[in-house]
## 1
Amino acid sequence: MNMSGEETHIDFNHLVTRYLSGELSPEELSGFQEVLRKDPGKQELLDEFRKIWDSTGAVSTEERYDLEREWALMQEKLPGFKNESGFGKTSGGGGRSLLYYSYRIAAVFVVGLMLTLSWFYVTRMAGMERVVAENEPVEVILDDGTEVIVNRHSRLRYSRKFDQQERKVYLTGEAWFDVTRDASKPFVIDAGAALVEVLGTSFNVNAYKENPTVEITVESGMVALSAKQDTKDLIVMKAGSGGTYHKSQRELKLIPSSDPNSISWKTRELFFEGSTLREVADLVNRVYGVNIVIMNRELASCPITVTFRDQTLEAILNVLEITLDLQATQVGDEIRLDGEGCVE
């Protein structure tokens, strides 16, 4: 992330709204945090924005006010942001640049806009709670006793008090649910492109925006999965099975036997049978939030059969080193696996 010179102020305000809504990628988040460390003034500005944000709550993708679009429109209307020769034209006579005054106006505009929207958010989001899991999963107990564990880089929005007809929550990312049974009030998860409905059961929902599918894994009970645009077409999954909804193809698919590693991020139980080291590394990366890099193709294709039950990352690496005769080395934020590969 390159943020320097006079463009820094504009970029920073764009990133603030995405940071507070939990939409920054891991790479963007790292760069954003570095900017805050280097500039205490920006940290103070972020703190002010956070106070406003926390007082207004969050909204779903469909409901969210498009602050970035408003920012772009403001840039077009305010003098000094853009002109034929670019940023920073002065008003002449050695005075301050129009850009300088535009920044000051922009700062007031953004804060004023967020304050103006406070009433809008509060009236629409009254009684709502939100959970944003960044680098570690977050556990929450809902009003009805339902347990939810929200996976890293995921968000959950829910009502403090469910209404009389249904219990509805909104998920972006991945979460595991253990739903308290209530036959008179279905539990509904809005997962973006798909809807998940249950009465009382435990299951996992993988609904990251970047994934082409919404994936369900049922641990107990029964779960119904339908497209958000057509709730009449649905599939019903029982314990031990799963299902997917393909967003672009708008296709529902029942999976008779679910992947045992689908909830490894929660249980930290990893099962491999004849799996390649590449497959092992990819799953360990997702479960432990690390960056394992395999240094050569031959090593990546080596097969391994092993089960890890709530092991530390160090213990897993030790087993891989001994089993496949490789070396694990920490270099910066990477864990590099190197070796000659396996013998055919």
## 2
Amino acid sequence: MKLWQKKAVLDRDVEAFTVGDDYLLDYELLPFDCQASKAHVRMLTKIGILSDQEGDRLLKGLDDILSLHQKGVFEIKAEDEDCHTAIENYLVRETGTIGEKVHTGRSRNDQVLTAIRLYSKSKLTECEADVFAAIKALDSFIAKYGHTVMPGYSHMRKAMPMTVAMWGGAFRDAFSDDQLLLYTAMKLIDQNPLGTGAGFGISLPLDRQMTTRELGFSKILHNPVYAQNSRGKFEGFVLTVLSNIMGDLNRLAADLLFFTLPELGYFSLPDEFHTGSSIMPHKKNPDVLEILRGKYHEMLSLENRVRTTTINLISGYQRDLQLTKAALVRGFTVTLQSLRMTIHIINHLHVNAVNCKKALTKELFSTDKVHRLVQQGTPFRQAYRKIGDEYEQDG
């Protein structure tokens, strides 16, 4: 039975269209909805809405749901619409009228907000751990190969010498900035919306400080209208942060596709990291790097989907906002998979010092020659022209 069910039976085509894949996506959110429901039950018990016995029955039922979910046997049906309904229906089946009390002081609006915030906090923590692991992988790579000198490029042409440490350190610094962005995203979403109801508050003496403590939020999101308006805004910011991470991975993949070209051979990956061609038996294709590079564009589309969905909505909940959930879940999936593959790649990346040294052709040192003349008293522009003329004459 739907939480909003009245006498009329919803048209099946309308039901399928409005539910979409939401009930499938909610398998990701279910543990967090149970976590929020347990905190809510304990709070309702404290303020006397539930008796101690009723509270215990509901808490046991929620633990049972979590256990079934972990075993992969808790079902969320399309007719449930979402995990919130599936959870309440299970509690009603198991506890009778006690289960009908679990929704007291809540709306599905603040339920889903809370579950999404808890889910996002969990996934952001995973991202932070993986970004840190990527930094550690780069540290090991730099310690092993960092002293090697190789060509640096601008405009896709040789420019000046650089070291492997300089190249790897650029991405280390990028990931350090990504850590700051993840921290900022965490601070933004770490606000408890539970107790704001459908966006207009709840006329019961809810103890929101208690649920905030129970759920590990750092602050209460007080304004109920803003609680609804923040949906999409917060997800959009999280996806912006994830897009920044994916942008760094995109550039790293692009560099590796270039540096591992057989014609250059500065870096290499094991044969096990390459695929083959169905027609050309000699091919060793760096598909893993190409897919990693391409995932950034998928992330941009997910971010854009959320940003554009929230444009021109008036304050309060609109059903359009349901469409932001899939983008958020997919965004975390793409980022975590990409980070873990990047770590795997870095851990197996080899630098060919011989090829790097061979590639250090004389034009790479032109600027050094200019600076030596400058140190001897020659004005920079004169030194620049002098060295430039020498390279022109050498052809």
